[in-house]
Amino acid sequence: MSKRSISSFLFTSLIVVSSWTCFAQNARQQQLIDQLKTAKPDSNQVNLLNELNVNFIDEGDVYNSLKYGWKALALAKKIKDKSGIVISYSNLGFTYGYDGRYDESLKMYFRSLEYSRKYGQELSVINAFVNIGTVYDSKSDYKNSLRYYFYALKYGKRTKNTDLLADVYQNLGVTYYSLGNLPESMKMHFESLRNYDKLNDTAGKMDEYNSIGNVYADQGKDEQALAMYRKSLKLALQLNDKDGIGNAYANLGIVYKDQKRYREAFTMYDNALRVYASIDDRQGLAIVYNDQAKLYFNIGKYREAIASCEIALKNSVSVNVVSEITNAYLTMSKVYIKLGDLKKARALIDLSLRQSLAIREKQNIKDT
Fold this sequence. Notes:
- This protein has about 375 residues and is mostly helical.
- It has 17 helices and no strands.
- Helix 5 (about 100-120) runs antiparallel to helix 6 (about 120-140) and helix 16 packs antiparallel against helix 17.
- The radius of gyration is 22 Å and the shape is globular.
C-alpha cells in the first residue's frame, strides 16, 4: 500500500525552516541571549531560557536546545519556580523525543507529570499524559500510548477542555490507525472533528478530513475518501497551508492511482510536487516521487519510473528518510526485473534489505 500522509500530534523527524524563518529566529535568538546578560535570576530568566530551548529545536539544533533547557530547569529548581520546573521538564522531553532518544524523553515527561501533580496543575497533568502517549506511539508501543491518551481523555472530559479533547481524540485515531483498528480509528477521528467544529478550528478540521480520508481509503471506500480529501484540500487552500495542500493532493493521487484513473493521478501528483518543492519539503517530495514511480511502473513506462525513483532517492537520502530510500530501491528492482536486467535488480534488492536491517539494528541499539 502506498504511504498516505497522516495528520497527528506526534513528533516529526524533520523540521524544514525557510531562509526567512531562519533569519527571524536567529534575530530572536540573539535578542534573547542579549536579554539574558542583564536578566536577574528569577522566573523571567527561566522563561527566556525556555524560549531559547524552543527556538533552537525549531531549527533542529538539539545541542543548544538541551543546553538552554537544562539551564532553565536548574534555575527554576533553585528559585522554586513551580511552573518553570514543569515547563522545563516538558521542553526537555520534546527535545529528546525530537532527537529520537525516547527513553530520555519519557524520563523528562514523567518528571513533568510528577511535578504537575505535586503542584496541582491539572492542565499540565493532561499535557504530560498526551506527551507520554506520543513518545510511546513513536516507539510503536501502542498499548501504553493508548493507556496515556485515555488518561488524558478522562481528565480532559472532567475539565471540559474542548481544544484538548479534539487533540487527544485525534491522537487516539492515529494510534488505532497504526494498529489497523480502522473502526475505532474512524470513531476517534469523527469525535475529534466534532470538537474542532465546535471550536471553529479550520486547521484542525483540515487535518481530520485528511485522516478520515485515510481510514476510508484503507477500507476500500474510495469515493468517501475522495470526498474527505477534497474537503481537506478546500480548507488547506483557504488557510494557504502548503503542507496541508500537498498532503491532500498526494492522497487524492493515491486514490486515483488505485482506481486506475491515471491521468487524474498524475495531475494530483504534479500538484503535490509543486507545492512540496515550494516549501523544500524533501520528505514529501520523496514520498510523492516514489508513488509516481509506482504509477509509471503500472502503465509500463519503465524509464520514467526509474527517473522518478532516482529523484525520490536523492530527496530521501538528503533528509535520511530510510523508509523512502527502501521504497525507491524496491521499485527500481521491479523495473529492472521487467527489463530483464536481473543482476541490477538483485543488487537493488540487496541495498533495500541492508537499509531495512540497518533500521532494525538502530532500533535494537536504542532499545538496549
